[in-house]
Queue: 2 jobs
Job 1
Amino acid sequence: MTDKTTMTSVERALTVLGAFQLDDTSLSLAELAQRTKFYKSTILRLARSLQNSHFLVRLESGRYQLGAEVVRLGEICKRGTTLDRLIMPVLQKLVEATGESATLYVRKGEHRFCLRRVDSRRTLRDHIREGDLIPLTVGAPGRVFLHFDPGIAPPMRRGAVPANVRTDATLPLPIVTRGEYDSELAAIACAVFGAQDELLGVVSLSGPINRFRKREAQIMGETLLDACQRLTAELGGNLKHYAPRKPGGAS
């Protein structure tokens, strides 16, 4: 099958899903054909693939309704949009309070994706940009994903930490790493959870390693933890993940 043929099939499948409107509970084959302008044979072929992927369900009556996968993606989109709407004021306040750059990461496969970023006003800072992809196996944000995201394969969770890297990877939150992503940089990261107890994203403070000594890291970590707890509460998440840190935990 050529790339062009694949794209045509995908576009047609999306057209079938897009035929459903807000008040529809189910649609017949004839209704789908009328709305998509496709032959019934084409819709039957597409419907079989969509059923296999749980995007469509065929009822005993022969009618079709949207499947569980559509609902799941809809929930992800809704929560992601809500987090995106709430996050910028939080990042801005974190920069004002700590003087360091603040970033929201979300997971994309085996990478963390920089979704939103507010830079430190200081001349000397790290230079992560919105849209950057960074492996999950390096840095404090990646370690939070590795700990809390059940969709990450076990071999990846066992990624080795270089012997010269000082890291507080034991969790509870927040977690601090120094010199892991870059030998001159440090980061503090904390998770944000949603209403279904899922990890929605990771918020990080980052900057030159000499500004993240034990005392500074402890103060910034408390500020970051408070911000993430507030975000999680606003999103309907459970605060159980934010267990108390032992004294001196942010080293």
Job 2
Amino acid sequence: MAARAHAGAGTAYGSRRRSTRRPAARRRPAARRGASRVRWDRVGRIALTLVLAAVLFSYLNPLLDFVHTYRATGAAKAELRSLQHENTRLHARVQSADDPAVLEREARRQGMVLPGERAYAVSGLRG
């Protein structure tokens, strides 16, 4: 019966026997030679630095264009203010051109006289 109980226990619950397998032996890495070893962490850092430098270099030209445009915009705004001031002055002259006093002053500056007046020319004062 003992043999039978042992046999039944083995089939119902699986074998309780310890495995005689040994764990797989760990492979030791091959001996590394100092001169031919590639340091991938350094290679990665250098590559990343080069990519970053290339990206920054690609942004350099648009940045310079932006600076030049910004400066040109400032100069254009100053010129615009100057031209607006001159435009206001010219509009005032056009509006005042219909005034009879202004018309008479401009006509006399050009050497014109009213009907019935005598024109006199004085020469030799500056000399």
